[in-house]
Predict the structure.
Amino acid sequence: MAGVTYATTTESLAAQVRQHLGVNLSHCYQCGKCAAGCPVAEDMDMTSCRLLRLLQLQQPALDQRVLASEGIWLCLTCETCSTRCPQEVEVAKVMDFVRSEAIARDVAHPRSRDILSFHRAFLDSIRTTGRLYEIGLVADYKVRSRHVLKDVALAPKMYLRGKLPLLPHLIKGRDEVKRIFQRTLGRRR
Amino acid sequence: MRIGYYPGCSLLGSSREFDESVRALAGALGLELVQVPDWNCCGASSAHVLDHKLSLALPARILAQAEAAGLEEILAPCAACYNRLASARDALDKDPVLAREMEKVIGRPATHKVRVVNILEVLDRFKDTLPGLLKVPFAHKVACYYGCLLVRPAKVLHFDRAEDPQSMDRLAAAAGAAPLDWNYKTECCGAAFSVTRTDLVARLSGKIVADAVRAGAEAILVACPMCQSNLDMRRTESNAYLGADHQIPVLFITQALGLALGIDANRLGLQRHMVPATFAPAAV
Amino acid sequence: MSRIGVFTCHCGENIGATVDCAKVAACTRNVPGVVHSVDYKYMCSDPGQTLIKEAIKEHNLTGVVVAACSPRMHEPTFRAAVAEAGLNPYLCEMANLREHCSWVHGKADATTDKAADLIRVMVEKVKHNEPLHPIKVPVTKRALVLGGGIAGIQAALDIANCGHQVVLVEKSPSIGGHMSQLSETFPTLDCSQCILTPRMVEAARHPNLTLMTYAELEKLEGFIGNFKATIRKKARQLDEKLCTGCGLCTTKCPQKKIPDEFNEGLGRRGAIYVPFPQAVPNKPVIDKANCTFYRSGKCKVCEKVCPTGAIRFDQQDELVTLDIGAIVLATGFKVMRTDKFPEYGYGKYPDVIDGLQFERLASASGPTLGAMQRPSDGKAPETVVFVACSGSRDRSKGVPYCSKICCMYTAKHAMLYKHKMHHGKAYVFYMDIRSSGKDYDEFVRRAIEEDDVTYIRGRVSRIYEEDGRLVVKGADTLMGGEPVEIKADLVVLATAVQAQDGSEELAQKLHVSYDPYHFFAESHPKLKPVETNTAGIFLAGACQAPRDIPETVAQASGAAAKVAALFSRDELTREPQVAVVNRLPAPMFSYCVGCFLCQSACPYQAIEQEEIRGRDGSLLKTLAKVNAGLCQGCGTCVATCRTKAIDIQGFSNEQIFAELMTL
Amino acid sequence: MTDSFEPKITAFVCNWCTYAGADLTGTSRIKYASNVRVLRLPCTGRIDFMLLAKAFSRGADGIIVSGCHPNDCHYTSGNYHARRRWMVYRDLMDFMGLDTRRITFSWVSAAEGARWAELVNEVTVAVRALGPYTDYRELALTGVE
């Protein structure tokens, strides 16, 4: 592990996790139970417990590795880790925090593009109509992710089963919802 | 009995049958569903992933709407909505500062005291009346699948036990079904990755389907639209992953109960499933 | 007119650094009644003490205040010194300048002022001190040992061998405890039974030792040297004198399917049973809850077959009261059961067992006669997974502490398994290996290096059954947390060591304190490891904290030594800090009006009624009277007394008010 | 209230738990406000109303009464008696116009060195805010005791 550390103790991700989530990462004693129960651990470049370990060391280089990892974008927030942690460390919350930091600092792993564009498409659909407009979502996502031909077979089947209403539901409080978005996301998209 | 109702977006679209079966069942049980006026989307996992504040604000508005309508308790059949709403309520309840902040964001005061309950909790209140109403016992071996969102995080939801939950099994039994002891009750199905990482969903959902089949189930019962669509709509992919051809249908618990109460299969939306679910009630 | 001497100690730098001792000594000289005040580097040192002794003589002091460390530290030291100088030791008080002042405040005038205050308080107190004399109480030279495991047996034997009477009380039908259930013991792998049973027999035969098995402590009264213990001897439904222990009844009992406690539910027993073949005493008991006769009124087979007619269906529990001088608590521990593990199936999988159950599986006297057969179907397990730290070091399960013995016995288990099944595969999931002890780490290394047990550093997240095998989902943290999935035939959870059931109640019966996990608390973590905070009650073994056999035996002998030391004297001297009801000349006799509120408040039943009679024998007044032997000097009675007739020596109203007046 | 006001705190503590706890505070070198003066009693069961009243009349601005935790009393039940009596006294004191906010009942075990420091600091801050307790002292001086 490289020797470089932060100038002040408040800069590290661990410190911020403590400040914002009240989660004390020093509680983690690296038993690996979180990773052991994680449904996608095998797909991750960095398992949850490895990630916690890197955060514990509170070094810029290691924090960077965490933020840039692909694994955090595979987390399904299924909360199995938090549920079983013997030290009651809320691992899933930490994952959430790390992801939002990665976005904020614009260092998210390239492979997160699809996932992010899906979520953004999802939110945009709400931003404008107040509720999710599934066809809109899928279309928007395809554009953003350029996976134009994905699931083309599925849509008609769904449509035939009345699972894809053609028109969006517009709620009255659309302005309210717009405002909510502005006051939280602000200009961010 | 009267209760607030928050269908949530997917129940208007990809999971219409859940909405339909809930309403049909409520009718049969004499439960009046009062829809939350002009409700908005809860933000689902997208808001959760992208922005913490937003993931609280959207539910906050919903709770405020319910409160304004004089509702004390709202039923959110969609497990995702239930989870987001309950989590937000919990957070706002625990942290007054945050609550005030959210009031600013949604632009009006609110106590956020409205209780959020899931469909299993609500149906459990009818466990005594159910047997009496039974017309066509749903006499099938079933694997009750809870997924993540109904039971985790336990600290917030306080519903059933986090490992090997029982509430749905009890209901299924009440409907005349034989709930099986199996291993994937609370394993994750892949959730919101259905579109983006279909490969993961195929694997995770595949394992679930496989274990249900191994246990000898004739149907998988769920109470979550995401689980249902991943296990049902993604069957082609999961079967491909398993290299198998599992045709086990995936029903919402409300559909199973509905059939048991002799409600017509189409009113319960069984025709909408990808994997054919034909439990035509042999009329008595 | 009192002549007080004040001696301020620097305690090297400990007090000197933050308190200006010279100044304190100086301004103390102006306190009325103080005729001598000095400061010195180390008052507790020999020259320091001499300083005090000489001053007492030179200034013929009537009271001494030593301003130094906590009285809990050196009060005895200085009182002894004072006594040597011919002054009554109870005319010496200490002002706590170190723990309560210099160590907890920075260097400042306020700190020095406080020091001076603390001294003034004590000066005022001492002015009102009365010379007191230690109370002498007799010692009953009979010890009571609670718990017949190895700790209890060892303590009882040691005490008995010192020539003192011992009563060994065990709640189950036989002594032996957990150790008698073990197969082999680490780190030597000698058979537990082989080393324990001789001790059990010795205990049974020892002339100074009385065994009371199938018995429990009902009630305890009194105090060190003078306890009164009431023991409930549960009805065995058997005349122990007639019973020869032939065992015919146990073989003929129609009930055969009762889960056997000794075999941790892996074996079966009858309703009348002897827990295990080497049981001491080797006499059966009838398990009333499961006996056909007690359930249906019919059967009595045992009675019919008993050659000596020893069965007594009408036998009742018996209460025995004993005079006891000292008590050794050796009630042992229990292990967390597998049903406490939701993620491992709430104990619903028969092949997920705990460590004790494995001991029985591996034991030659066990249900499988030592053959490796798993509970569900008796198949020999080809793959066994051992999970260390199951429930230990796990706040989510309410056990943050380390259970201490699991690392070692898990290594032992893996070894035993491999010795019985060379081709079998043994995995151990662990977090850390804690094997500090003579030959302990070598033992663990042997398991890894010679018996090729695979150690995986990580916890197990989930266990479930699939097609008759157990799927164990763990992770290898030495591989960055890579998931590891093992299909096992048997899983052994090294479950947490917990305080014995009912520990809390027992502790309250005995007035000994206990920790948040209900282990009994020692009086001092380092210097009084076998004492409790109640004089005359000592601790041995795992009832105090998780312990292995060597430690338990050592501690048991330690406790026995304490008892022997206590019994080496014919009478005890106790601090005279006790309550007294004042006595006045007739016709008043005392302020006491005989309301006896004090009697109801006293936790020690130390308050008696004394009748004052006139010459003609007519009753004049009934007064409260304190039994100095029973009184512990808590002063609760003083606070309840409406006429202030009752007071505590050493903490009298006068003294305390005097202290208050200085503030 | 002037910030310069330093309250006098009188603490009545039992010998077995809180006094030992305070000793531990010392051995652990935990710093706390020097406003407190500790009076050692065998047990909080010994505390009676007169002591508290006297302390106030002698210039205490605040009082701490601290003993063993429930079930941990060295004398098994002294701390309960103290608690029960306190319930009664409080009403009496309120009735007499004593400021019961200035009396803090607490439990500090022999193992809670840090807790003792906290307690003293909390009370010191609280009492500092309440200001000097002159009213009662005046009463006392006029001979009402």
In short: Strands of chain D lie at 9-14, 36-41, 62-67, 103-107. The domain at 9-141 of chain D is CATH 3.40.50 (Rossmann fold).
